[in-house]
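Input record, target 12 of the design panel.
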């Protein structure tokens, strides 16, 4: 199959507006490279955006597993690559469509909640209802400017006088298919507003909060209505290639070699220039208005069960790396107490892979914000992006425990 036919096929399969993409008999494999040559072979396969291979996690160092979804017609080819390139593999999911179907549980939940995944309209309608419920506390923020004309909807939460208060910015679903991320941030927002726990109330009332649960609404809608595995934005770059990775598109360490892709069909396509994606440009312009006030910027993704610290484009550590790392260790220790879920802590570069142009790198680099973290939420190797609805609330609960611990440990540390 020639180059253009591959991309045309990719366009039809991943960008069709006429029918929903199905993943019957697609398999998810855990592939582990055992040599540097094997790592480079995987990186080349990932960069190529080859039809039939979808990297659910990105290629890291030797010995780090990579989750790859493969179409039925290319499963044998992937196994051949594994054998020839000194890798090992294990089956995680034998039919991806079954998990997609299971994820869409009967919609018995009345109103907005966390027993199933909510649509963009449901999330936005809930957010828009909050200023009516908390008129002196919550202010609606609607940022206009996505490619398909949708607003990026968020809120500002502030109790009483804002004098001398530090601000916290929380964002999620910058990657469309990571549904558990916006479920978690809306849960945290609800706790900030409703919890009667004294520690939570203290945390809530001593800060100004900015929550943006769905940063990439165009991609999110597409993942819910057309292609469950859609990751990118919906900006059209050619007849065959749609979307860029909005977390490779921020104007800090953008275009670092090996950390993204210049191939518009790649899942890691960084875009033709920084902030080429309307959603990242719009959000960044708002962040500039509050950036100097921020004590924390926390971004939610899935999946890996890691708490990540900048940077991803360099092995160089933050100026306050030791403090950030120690706080992270305490936070994941607290997270594990409720359900035994284990997380790792470290920089993106050190424990994941090379990555550049992300939101947390931009915030840290531009504003020197003290606390900057990315959560890669559940799970770790069984469901991937297709976390069952039954795990939404447990994920939210344990994550909120650790979220509170981050701030408790920070203020304890700076007072000592």
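The sequence produced for target 12 reads:
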């Amino acid at each position: 199959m020639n180059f253009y036919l591959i991309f045309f096929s990719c366009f039809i399969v991943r960008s069709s507006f006429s029918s929903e993409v199905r993943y019957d008999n697609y398999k998810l494999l855990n592939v582990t490279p055992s040599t540097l040559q094997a790592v480079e072979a995987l990186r080349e396969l990932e960069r190529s955006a080859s039809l039939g291979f979808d990297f659910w996690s990105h290629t890291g160092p030797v010995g780090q597993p990579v989750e790859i979804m493969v179409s039925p017609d290319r499963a044998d080819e992937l196994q051949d690559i594994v054998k020839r390139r000194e890798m090992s593999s294990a089956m995680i999911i034998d039919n991806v469509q079954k998990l997609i179907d299971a994820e869409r549980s009967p919609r018995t939940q009345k109103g907005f909640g966390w027993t199933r995944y909510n649509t963009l309209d449901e999330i936005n309608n809930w957010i828009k209802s909050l200023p009516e419920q908390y008129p002196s506390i919550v202010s609606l923020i609607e940022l206009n400017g996505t490619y398909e004309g949708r607003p990026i909807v968020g809120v500002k939460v502030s109790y009483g006088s804002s004098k001398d208060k530090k601000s916290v910015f929380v964002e999620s679903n910058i990657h469309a298919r990571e549904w558990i991320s916006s479920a978690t941030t809306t849960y945290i927002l609800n706790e900030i507003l409703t919890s009667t726990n004294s520690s939570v109330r203290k945390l809530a009332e001593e800060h100004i909060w900015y929550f943006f649960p769905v940063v990439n609404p165009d991609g999110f809608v597409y993942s819910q209505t057309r292609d469950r595995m859609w990751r990118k934005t919906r900006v059209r770059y050619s007849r065959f290639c749609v979307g860029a990775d909005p977390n490779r598109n921020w104007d800090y360490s953008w275009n670092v070699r090996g950390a993204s892709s210049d191939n518009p069909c790649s899942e890691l396509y960084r875009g033709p220039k920084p902030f080429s994606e309307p959603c990242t440009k719009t959000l960044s312009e708002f962040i500039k208005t509050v950036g100097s006030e921020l004590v924390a910027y926390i971004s939610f993704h899935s999946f890996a069960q890691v708490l990540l610290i900048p940077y991803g484009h360099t092995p160089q550590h933050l100026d306050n790396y030791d403090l950030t790392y120690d706080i992270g260790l305490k936070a994941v220790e607290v997270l594990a107490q409720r359900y035994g879920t284990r997380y790792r802590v470290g920089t993106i570069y050190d424990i994941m892979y090379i990555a550049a142009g992300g939101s947390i790198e931009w915030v840290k680099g531009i504003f020197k914000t003290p606390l900057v973290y990315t959560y890669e939420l559940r799970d770790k190797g069984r469901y991937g992006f297709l976390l069952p609805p039954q795990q939404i609330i447990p994920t939210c609960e344990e994550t909120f425990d650790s979220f509170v611990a981050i701030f408790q440990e920070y203020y304890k540390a700076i007072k000592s």
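The radius of gyration is 21 Å.
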